[in-house]
Amino acid sequence: MIYITNYFDWDSYEMEAFFEKLAKGCSRLACLEINHTQRPSIGSIHALKQLESLKRFNFSIQNTSDNDDFWEAIQDLSQLECIRIYPAREVNMSKIRYLKSQRPDLEVIVDAMFSRF
Asked: Which domain of life is it from (predicted)?
């Protein structure tokens, strides 16, 4: 398990580079928790596809409600068994329902704020 707390802005390039290195250096990672207000970039989510043993992913969904590409990238992480997303006030339930219809095997937990697995 890796728990990341980041108190500064992460541009998408830095985030993608970090996730690429994480995927190469921690190939057996099973749980990733990110305590940051910024959502993962689509490129960084694609980097996580390399982590075949990643089962649980905890992250912010800030500014994602109308971003279909973001939700498709999450859907494509076929190795995931569970995601925990926050903050609940940002959740577009139609996106969650669609995700669940496409990935009935994926448990989706919606929290008001960050909490750990």
From this structure: Eukaryota
